[in-house]
Model the fold of this input.
Amino acid sequence: MFSLDTWISNIPVRQMMFNIFVYFNYLNSNKKMADQADHQAGDTGPPKGIPALKAHVAANKVDVALWAIRVLTVLFTIGYVLPIFNNPVSAFYKALLANAATSALRLHQRIPAREISVSREFLARFFLEDSAHYLFYSLIFMNVAPNLLVLTPIFLFALLHAASYSLTILDTLGQNSMWVARLLISLVEFQSRNILRAAALAEIVLFPLVVFMAFFGYCGLLTPFVYYYFVTWRYASRRNPYTRNTFRELRVVAEGLSSRPATPAILRSGIQSCVQLVCRMAPPMEHVQQ
Done:
């Protein structure tokens, strides 16, 4: 009867060692060939590092400039909140100027110079762009007393867009570069919906604050009327529905508060009057693209 032990014992030891050596040598040669193939495949891929970053900057000058200005907007806002190295008033207006520069560059991308014309159709298209809204926003508050709520929307938008493009720059440098920065960027992008909602809420809450500031001399008397147009543009925005959705959420909260039995009659009447006033001031819904 055939036995595996008997068959192995009949093979010379020297032959067994030779076969094992040949087998491992075969495995090692296959591994080297696979590594060489991977290395050659990596050589044919896109380059990484500083040369790749320089090429990316040369090919995407406007996008890189937008990223740099947004980073400056974030830094100026932080400098206004924590005035350690600069004047907070100067940081406030620099943040507004940086936001105006960002909006102007975005408008240049969205509406090329060859399409500019003096016509009602062009103005209607111009004010449909979110970048035009925030260019107008910076101009509104250039002569207003510094206030943190004014910087909140532009800070949140700059933070979100700068974080998104920072990931592109890190990918250009290499997949494993600056993992701490990648982690922070991932946290920002994970909270992108909440960031956009917070920016929309700041836009809305700023309107009664501007009215209050006008009464007490912190801004011009025409500023609330001009800011009203900004809010209506944001409400009717085609690309960003968060302002519109936040208005609806606030209306639901206000109507729920007024319908509570414990709410005093005078407060209930005041809330209902405010809701009706805001609804009358809203732009026509037929102009809003869902």
